[in-house]
Amino acid sequence: MIKNPIVAPSLLAADFLRLEEEIEFINSSHADWLHLDIMDGRFVPNISFGMMVVEAASRVCRKTLDVHLMIVEPEKYVEEFAKAGAQNITVHAETCSHLHRNIQQIKALGCHAGVAINPHTPVGILEHVIEELDLVLIMSVNPGFGGQKFIFETLNKIRQTRQMIQNRNSKALIEIDGGVGLQNAEKIMEAGADVLVAGSSVFKSKNPADTINKLKSIGNLPKYDV
Q: Quick check: is 194 catalytic?
């Protein structure tokens, strides 16, 4: 039986007119983390929100704040996000010329450090930093917009990353972001993932609490076609 995942609903899919209520729902649910996607309109073709929303969320949220920086020059902003309440900070390998230094910066701020890779980016880019990481975030859609379809090549990348983590005795968790739902979560976990970022599949579902519960107990559910 596969292990139960860490479930991280993505705030990007929430109703921003009811933001406090949506976060209180996450508090009362069996979700583990709250995932916050920060987009700058430069690295990705969209703009989401920044430190002010993270800080506001931190005053309400009782779950781990998992901040995903889809931005260029993240080293200029990670300290502010840490001060705003981020507990996990993930930067993109594609935006970091000095990736090891970026990871050290995040850890020096007392946060867990993650590195994300886009669908076209090979897992091998992490080889020389994998032992330093707390998180590897594998994008399973092209970053910038919610509600996209899961890219199935991601399953191979998860397996490759899991093998690298085992070979190097790394403690990094594997987090999957994009197109994750009940239709593919079990396959994702079987491939070796630890954390499921679920946006539309949670907040847009008829029963978000029930969806979270099903994701949490994914190993005990009936098989779904993918």
A: no
Could you report the per-residue pLDDT of 188-225, keeping only the tens digit for each? 999 999 999 999 999 999 999 999 999 999 866 444 34
The catalytically annotated residue of 32, 37, 66, 134 is 37
40 located within any domain: yes
The total number of structural domains that make up the chain: 1
Written as six digits, the tokens of 38 are 């920060």
- Residue 39 tokens read as 């987009």
User: 152 lies in which domain range?
Assistant: 6-220
- Is residue 66 annotated as a catalytic residue, yes or no? no
- Around Cβ 156, how many Cβ atoms within 10 Å? 11
Helical (H) or strand (E) element with 195: strand 195-198
Q: CA–CA separation, 146 vs 68, rounded Å?
A: 14
- Which is the catalytic residue, given 40, 66, 177, 194? 177
